[in-house]
Amino acid sequence: MNRRRGNMRRGALALFVFFTALFLVLTGRFLYIQIRGVVNGEPLAALASKQHAKSEVIEAKRGSIIDRNGEVLAEDTATYTLAAVVSNRLSKTDKNPMYVTNKEKTAEVLSKYIAMSKADILKRLNKKKVYQVEFGKAGKNISVETKKKIEKEDLPGLIFTRQAERFYPNGTFATQLIGFAQQTEGQSGESSLVGKMGIEKSYNAALTGENGKLKYSTDRMGYILPNADKNVEKAKDGSQIELTLDKKIQTFLEDTMTTVNAKYKPKNMMAVVMNPKTGEILAMSQRPSFNPTTKAGLNGKSAGVWQDLPVEYAYEPGSVMKIFSLASAIDTGVYNPNAYFKSGIYKVGDIPIHDHNGGVGWGSIPYREGVERSSNVAFATLLNKMGTDTFEKYLTKFGFGRKTGIQLPNEATGKILYHYPVEKVTTVFGQGTTVSMMQMLQGASAIASDGKMKLPYVVSSITNPNTNKTSKTQMKVTGNPISEATAKKTREELERVVSGEHGTGKLYAIPGYSVAGKTGTSQIADSTSGKYMTGKNNYIFSFMGMAPANDPEIVMYVTMQQPQLSDTETGGEAVSEVFNPVMKNSLQYLNIKPAAEKKLSKIKMKDYTSKTVEEAKKAVQQDKLNPVVIGNGKKIVQQIPKVGETILEGQKVILMTDGDMTVPDMQNWSREDALKVSEITGIPFSFSGSGYVVKQSAAAGTILNDDTELKLELATPDSIEAFTKNNDDSDKEKVKQDTNIQENQGVGDLLTGQ
Asked: Are strands 459-464 and 240-243 parallel, antiparallel or unpaired?
């Protein structure tokens, strides 16, 4: 018994000692903290401050993107995510509760503003053991207007979280150029808008601002304490970028591209409008494209949708390249518009180069007519005259084979294919060598602005709102590849491509305005076989034009790859449906008045008989008339119109020789002109259709006699190109057998040139 009591006393003593020691330790620790004010090496005041000090981010505004007239193309906006506090544990006794007090009413009201039924909302509000709930997709991307309406309902417990968004008010509008920005979470966990393509990406650093902070003190419930100190670090907004784009011209282009894209469904389509005097890009568009706000169309399925094609895509330009070939020939002095060459076929070693009508050609014709008809042979012979090394230097002067330096990412370099003799010849008419649209426009600016080549650019200025300083882009002359006289002469010759009798660009004439330009129909290399693709649709159809031709204010370039054409439709027609309305509307919008219609001079016919063929032709040309020789003789014995008759300049004069009568090439002739040949030869012709000659039953050069039956098929102007192109395709296999260039030299069959 005594032993048990002794044990109890010893146990009680031990407990007393333990608790006494614990009390002393805790008291000592408390006194130490109170005196020193430090816990684990950190000041107690700092810990208290951390518990009650709060901070909020003041979001910086991302810089806006505007057009040359201040119209907004991209700007910041805000959307909100809705949540509801359903737990009352933090404000159960408060007069102003911070949780949903009436779930039935809240569900009924919210169902009017978000895409969720009252029952589903109520189901979420009734969740147990959670502090707050969200409403899925229906509760996200709520607009400012909807947020304000919900707040007016005065429902406690609702929380809105703001997210910055990028808004593009014009929808599909220079999309690949402007690009888009979207929310991206950084390393610190904060999300911000980051550019993903175009201007938004390449100028992301300038557009992005620097967030500020708001610091303040709160009580345990999170309320700001009365007279609490506040510390504000102001946000620094991003810079505003002004583009060279003109919203009006861009709208013309986008509306037209949308219509034409729906009609022809090409694999891709590009178009750019540029001021050649400065290099400013006034409009730029492409298809495929997408809506940067809704992301509609940005599904990755359409090839090129993620590329800014006019900048990043390298392609074979086809006969549009002849613009620069012609300028080079004129600048070197080898181009004589009235000198003759033999069209049809030109041989590079054993490899034949064909004109685009299957190598038939148009006989011996002046170089000027060769340019109008887009003869490959004409340009091959001009290359021979100026020399391949000289032409290569001009290609370099015009900026081909290197980047222009435009202010956009991923610019294509292109490649001058100039190793083998045949490659040098094909380059002169745009096959084999690859280019970008920016390179073509840069080169065209030299033709349009008297030899001074301008760098294309899209950013006009950048303004920092924090300093109010603006940096402006200065026009940059990137070279003088040709003289002023050459540029003027080149424009004159290119104007004939559109307005001339044999011009392949007649479709691109705009009433009231003179247009200088060049068509293109380039082949497409098959990535699988390495050979050029065949078939009516498998081309890149294009046109580059400048207006007014004598002093261009606008250069416009349109390409369309593999449009889906019907049997009666042509690639030229499809391209003209983009070029013509946009060019015309742009000229009128810029208040460029139509030129007064040129009055043709009346000419009294002289006597050209008894002259040699060459003398007569030269005399007729000097009188601003168009000579057509019938027969293979050496002297002229008869003419129509007759001596003393009055005709307009540019009309045809039929000259009969003393030799055998021969059939002229009457392609694109009017019925009246063809009847002059019938009259002078005495051979009756039969006609079918109306308009202009597209087919004749006897080839040019055929001997005419009393037994000849000559039938002429006529068609309206908008059908002529379709007829010519169909004939070219029908001869394709024959020409391929003749050339075999793809297998021998890696260049491909040389069929196009329009």
From this structure: antiparallel
Q: What's the confidence (pLDDT) of residue 724?
A: 45
Contact criterion met (CB below 8 Å) for 121 and 134: no
Contact 362, 305 (CB under 8 A): no
Cα separation, 272 vs 251, whole angstroms: 12
Instruction: Work out whether strand 453-454 and strand 477-479 pair parallel, antiparallel, or are unpaired.
Output: antiparallel
Indicate the SS3 state at residue 723.
Answer: helix
Task: Answer yes or no: are the C-beta atoms of 100 and 106 closer than 8 Å.
Answer: yes
pLDDT at 368: 96
Joined together, the tokens standing for residue 474 give 């200065």
pLDDT of residue 50: 53
User: What pLDDT is recorded for position 233?
Assistant: 76
Q: Per 3-state DSSP, what percentage of the chain is helix, strand, and coil (rounded to 5)?
A: 35, 25, 40
Angle formed at CA 321 by CA 490 and CA 369, multiple of 5 degrees? 55
* Cis amide linkage into residue 641, ω under 30° from 0: yes
End-to-end CA distance of the chain: 126
φ, ψ (nearest 5 deg) of residue 686? -110, 140
Q: Are 548 and 564 in contact (CB under 8 A)?
A: no
Quick one: tokens of 311? 């900048």
What gap in Å lies between CA 750 and CA 355, rounded to an integer? Answer: 8
**Of 162, 139, 164, 160, residue with least CA distance to 151:** 160
What amino acid occupies position 303?
A
- Which portions of the chain are predicted below pLDDT 50? 47, 718-753
Cβ atoms 517, 497 nearer than 8 A? yes
Stretch (H or E) spanning 212: strand 212-217
Q: How far is CA 566 from CA 106, 287, 356, 579, in A?
A: 60, 20, 21, 20
Q: What is the pLDDT of residues 422-461, one digit of tens each?
A: 999 999 999 999 999 999 999 999 999 999 999 999 999 9
Residue 211: Cβ-neighbour burial (10 angstroms; 0-12, 13-18, 19+): middle
The residues near 384 (Cβ < 8 Å, ≥ 6 apart) are none
Backbone phi, then psi, for 463, in 5-degree steps? -115, 125
CB within 8 A of 79, min separation 6: which ones?
A: 140, 141, 142, 143, 162, 163, 165
Are residues 292 and 621 in contact, defined by beta-carbon separation less than 8 angstroms? no
| Residue (of 136, 145, 144, 138) closest to 110 by Cα position | 138
- Check if the beta carbon of residue 103 is closer than 8 Å to that of residue 125: yes
The CA-based diameter of the chain, rounded to the nearest angstrom, is: 164
**Which secondary structure element, helix H or strand E, spans residue 388, and what is its range?**
helix 388-397
The residue to which tokens 């583009």 are assigned = 243
Please identify which of the residues 87, 319, 328, 449 carries the catalytic annotation. 319
For residue 273, give the 3-state DSSP assignment: strand
- In three-state secondary structure terms, 461 is strand
Tell me, rounded to whole angstroms, the distance of Cα 655 from its chain centroid: 50
This prediction has a pTM of 0.75
CB neighbourhood size of 606 (10 A):
14
- 610 in active site: no
**How far apart, in whole angstroms, are the C-alpha atoms of residue 407 and residue 438?**
11
Look at residue 244 and give its three-state secondary structure.
Answer: coil
- Give the Å distances, CA to CA, from 595 to 231, 255, 587, 589: 67, 27, 12, 15
- Residue-wise DSSP of 635-678: BEEEEESPTT-EEETT-EEEEEESS--B----TT-BHHHHHHHH
- Residue 754 has a pLDDT of 57
Starting from the edge strand earliest in sequence, which strands make up the sheet with 554-561, in order?
280-287, 268-275, 554-561, 539-547, 516-523
d(C-alpha 401, C-alpha 391), whole Å: 14
- Report how far residue 558's alpha carbon sits from residue 551's, in angstroms, rounded to the nearest whole number: 20
Report the SS3 class of residue 86: coil
